[in-house]
Design brief:
Blueprint: E1 3-8, E2 13-17, H1 22-31, E3 39-42, H2 48-59, E4 63-68, E5 71-75, E6 83-84, H3 96-106, E7 108-112, H4 125-133, E8 137-141, E9 144-148, E10 156-158, H5 164-175, E11 180-184, H6 190-201, E12 206-207, E13 213-217, E14 225-228, H7 233-245, E15 249-253, H8 261-269, E16 273-276, E17 280-284, E18 293-295, H9 307-315, E19 320-324, H10 334-339, E20 344-348, E21 351-355, E22 364-366, H11 370-382, E23 385-390, H12 393-398, H13 402-407, E24 412-416, H14 419-429
Helix pairs in contact: 1-2, 1-3, 1-6, 3-5, 4-5, 5-6, 7-9, 7-11, 9-11
The structure holds ligand EPZ.
């Protein structure tokens, strides 16, 4: 089974280019099927989740042409099937966008219920509430969610919980509906704005994305577009915390600093120096980190997708920190793994009380989910000696060339597929 072999103890130093945002790309790629004209999308991250989504789109007749590793040309004029249930699509959460896009365009769709990382209940009731408000019938049978509508009529929809997926999915399903739709208590994440901007580039009429009230006026049809995905603020934040955790000096390039404000603020609180320029952020951690408190919140609050990364950093800080996870109810699974490295953390419900330790000891770890897996890699990079991280398929769902990018910063890390490879790595790095 493939794993990461790591020899930790070196500070990470240097510059790293950040790729396109996975959670924006998944929405934009799905939305691209809402027109029969050709759409070109640039800066698509080459990760498992985007590959799986593109495969699912091809399985129903969407023509997908990869112009290069990060650019795809999509034409959905020949869609021959409105049922998507292949095994791959069941693994990713973002399959739900295909339902919204197909419903919006064809008024019918059957898609396997969404999968995704086990970080808590991944409900879809708000998606269903939105589709029903627009006039669709939604039922769940044989592991599929099936939706049908005679016509889609704009509606006033209040989201009881701030939901990224439901906000984007309702935006898509209402883009071609008759009349006006208002989404109240909408998510404001950068990828919500990116999805709205992309839909508008195809001729949709969406206003207010990035605020908690989004207004969509349905249009007749959508047309061709050329679009580039925004940088991934979670990948960027992960490398910023890599500097903090290894007492290094890392510059993340091709970023939008505004999207990183809450991460930057926390790193400064913890004693790091942070320098911002137009499209880069530099993080220098020359001394031991200081404890702080953090609560994950919808954007622009501190992102839940950065919670494992800050949890690892605070486990090395001087003093006691409190981490509260307010979005998902099972996102502290990485703490058990971190304890194997000597961390001292007490989890009670959705709160972790972290007593910082001077350093971690190397260990053999298992990634419990995507962002926790990446955070555990950072923990191993800080610990002297050899560590391994298994179940790295999680990490590769959302990070492109993760070991290679870390190596470019001085990390001694390799993906190994056997014990023999592991021994060879150990001999090589000594
Ligand atoms: C998206 O998941 C992201 N995934 C997640 O990133 C991210 O953690 C999450 O948004 C929050 O930012 C993708 O974009 C593919 P939500 P999503 O709907 O859409 C509740 C990563 O690491 N809820 O915003 O599933 C839900 O239970 C992944 O890249 C309902 O109650 O998240 C949660 O408590 C992990 N009913 C809260 O809302 C619903 O119908 C936020 O979930 C939907 C959600």
């Amino acid at each position: 089974m493939e794993q990461y072999a790591i020899k930790g103890g070196n500070p990470l130093v240097g510059e790293v280019e950040i790729g396109g945002a996975k959670n924006a790309a998944l929405a934009v790629l799905a939305a691209a099927i809402m027109t029969d004209e050709t759409v070109t999308i640039e800066n698509v991250p080459d990760v498992n989740d985007t590959r799986v989504l593109l495969q699912a789109m091809e399985s129903i007749g969407v023509v997908v042409e990869r112009l290069d590793r990060h650019t795809v040309k999509i034409n959905a004029s020949m869609i021959s099937e409105l049922v998507i249930e292949d095994d791959f699509i069941k693994k990713i959460r973002a399959s739900y966008y295909l339902l919204g896009a197909l419903l919006g365009k064809y008024k019918h769709a059957e898609v396997a219920l969404p999968g995704g990382c086990n970080i808590g209940s991944r409900k879809i009731d708000l998606h269903i509430k939105g589709f029903k408000a627009l006039g669709a019938e939604v039922k769940i049978e044989h592991g599929l969610w099936i939706t049908d509508a005679e016509r889609l009529q704009g509606a006033h929809i209040y989201l009881d919980t701030v939901s990224v997926g439901a906000t984007i999915n309702i935006m898509m399903a209402s883009a071609l509906a008759e009349g006006k739709t208002i989404i109240e208590n909408a998510a404001k994440e950068p990828h919500v704005v990116d999805a709205a901007n992309f839909l508008n580039s195809m001729g949709a009429n969406i206003k207010g994305a990035g605020t908690d009230v989004i207004r969509i006026t349905g249009v007749e049809k959508l047309h061709a577009s050329e679009y580039s995905i925004i940088p991934d603020q979670i990948e960027a934040g992960t490398f910023m915390f890599a500097a903090a955790i290894t007492k290094g000096d890392v510059t993340v390039k091709n970023v939008i600093p505004k999207h990183l404000e809450s991460t930057t603020a926390k790193l400064i609180e913890m004693g790091c120096q942070v320098e911002e320029s137009d499209d880069a952020v530099r993080v220098v951690a020359s001394k031991r980190l200081e404890a702080t408190q953090v609560k994950t919140l919808p954007y622009p609050g501190f992102p839940t997708d950065m919670q494992p990364q800050i949890g690892v950093a605070l486990s090395l800080a001087s003093g006691t920190s409190i981490v509260t996870e307010s979005i998902f109810d099972n996102r502290f699974k990485y703490i058990d793994e971190l304890t194997k490295m000597g961390a001292n953390v007490k989890v009670e419900g959705n709160t972790a009380v972290i007593s910082g330790v001077e350093h971690f000891t190397s260990a053999a770890l298992t990634a419990p989910d995507l962002r926790a897996g990446a955070a555990l890699v950072l923990a191993c990079l800080s610990a002297e000696g050899f560590s391994t991280v298994e179940d790295i398929n999680y990490v590769e769902r959302g990070y492109e060339d993760f070991p290679q990018k870390l190596q470019s910063l001085g990390a001694q890390i390799e993906k190994v597929a056997s014990d023999r490879d592991l021994q060879k790595f150990k001999l090589k790095v000594g």
